[in-house]
Amino acid sequence: MKKQPVIILTDITKDYASEDMVTRVLHEISFRVNVGEFVAITGPSGSGKSTLLHIIGLLDLATSGTYFLHEKDVTKLTEDQQASVRNNEIGFVFQSFNLLQKANVLDNVVLPAIYAGTGKAVRETKGRTLLEKVGLADHLLKRPNQLSGGQQQRVAIARALMNDPSIILADEPTGNLDTTSGRDVMEILKSLHKEGKTIVVITHDASIANQAERIVKLRDGRIV
Amino acid sequence: MDILELLKLSINALKVNKMRSILTMLGVIIGVFAVIVLVSMGSGLKKYITDQISGLGSNLIFVIPGQVGGSRTPGGQQTNKLTINDARRLDTKLKAIADVGPVVQKPSTIKYKNKTDKQVSVLGTTSNYPDIVINAGTTRGVYFNLSQEKSGAHVTVIGKTVQERLFGDGNPIGEKISVEGKKYTIIGVMKKRGALFGIDQDNAIVIPINAATRQFGVDKVNAIYLAAKRPELVELVKKQARQALLQRLTEDDFTLQTQEQTLNTIGSVIGALTIALGGIAAISLLVGGIGVMNIMLVSVTERTKEIGLRKALGAKRSDILSQFIFEAIMLSVTGGVIGIILGLGVSVLLSQVFLSEVTPWSVFLAFLFSVAVGLIFGIAPAYRASRLSAIEALRYE
Ligand SMILES: Nc1ncnc2c1ncn2[C@@H]1O[C@H](COP(=O)(O)OP(=O)(O)O)[C@@H](O)[C@H]1O
Ligand SMILES: [Mg+2]
Known about the structure:
The complex is a heterodimer of chains A (224) and B (397). With 224 residues, chain A is an alpha/beta fold. Chain A has helices spanning 49-56, 79-89, 105-116, 120-133, 149-160, 179-194, 206-209; strands at 5-17, 22-34, 38-42, 64-69, 72-73, 90-93, 167-171, 198-202, 214-219, 222-223. Chain A contains seven helices and ten strands. Chain A starts with a strand and ends with a strand. The interface between A and B is medium-sized, with 25 and 22 residues. Bound molecules: adenosine-5'-diphosphate (ADP) and magnesium ion.
């Protein structure tokens, strides 16, 4: 099978400007991810991993450089077009889960489908299927705070899968979890990889990074 | 995002902070309530006065001395130039198209045996008065006739109040009462006419005009009523009456006013009053709206992280905008509906004891207003929410 790049970053820089100075947190990063690849990004705290992932996920904009996603130059998209890419092509998993505490588990999972305009019946069926897949079929109507950290992260993964994105971006998904729960989450990510999803995981845990096909190391905003 | 989803979202959001939502609604509730009650009272007053004036008779034109709104006081005795002869001339000129009824009026003291009734309105007029003014006929006895009118006979038709006060249940017909010392024989009792502008129309007696001019030593009249024989003749009567009056008087000496003009004048005065009152009430609605805006701004700040998450998951600007505008509208419309229900209830209760008439337009307007309040005061907070950067909002703690 010929490897086809799905994410192509070229000379990406990111500056943060405060009142008196400009800090460059990413220095001309060039980086590709192929379709169906499982990549781990590692590096010390503050090295720019999250910033990089946010740029890949169109949550943040690079200061300069080009970014092709699925062969489209996504730096030229309007805000709404970017929202639509985030909605359809990317699934996010955050370290702190980021679930809506006021909504139940099922409502959290179907959220991306609401913004995709999917009908209620269809999205709820899909949501149940996904929650079953991550082993939470019995917790549909619970509030997130009634679940353990591991369970909450699995809800977040189900949510990331809601609109069938081809790419999953996870920022330290096991960072807030105990070892067992962390291992469960990694197993789910690995099985998603087997199903053909492209996965980029940030971690500073070597044992987790070693489960990926490829490791990219960042230090001070540069790939080393 | 579809309407149903927006509805669910906004209801949930309002339920999360119940007390806060209720307090915010209270501002709108009070505003809408005040608008409806005040407008209902204004319309009630207008209806009351309109009914009262219409009760005088249709096709009616008033000739009153002086110029309404002019430098002279209308009806002022010093400047009154309208005489009994003017009325006679009008009668001759307009015979074919109108009934003409001059009125001389003076509050006087009436005596019957040892009973005294002060401040009774003594009305000198012509024998056709019951044809001109609706509901001025007799329940008992008869009205004076043309020859009694001409000769100035000392006969009188008394009002219901006078009858009750001086005679109680007894029959007054044929009895003699004295008006400022002159004796009059009672020949009839008028139908009950009620109050006009709070003045008891039944605290009056009617005497032939020629008796009145002699009794009071005047030749001036307080008003001349012209009753057109058919509604379509009103304008013609008015035109010819003006011509006839101008032969002797100037434009400044009299005012010709049709029933319709009177109604319009009073209607516009009360209409302006109603709008002024409604406007004051609307200010409280405005204050309610500012409350909505305030709470929505707080809500947007509190939910920055939620907004970030929604954007990260694919919400467009318009999705966030509609979510928060919908929430603000929900807040003000719920308040509006409660205010409408309360306002309607109080207006209906008020209408039992006071002048109050619920007008559908004020209810509709109040509803529209509360939607508008939500929309207008919801836009700024919602816009702020929609402009938040996804990543910065997500990082917000
Ligand atoms: N909004 C911001 N404003 C200014 N500096 C920032 C901002 N976000 C991140 N940084 C800085 O950028 C650098 C990289 O941060 P980050 O990408 O979060 O690193 P990592 O995820 O590898 O720990 C850090 O030095 C951090 O302080
Ligand atoms: Mg990080």
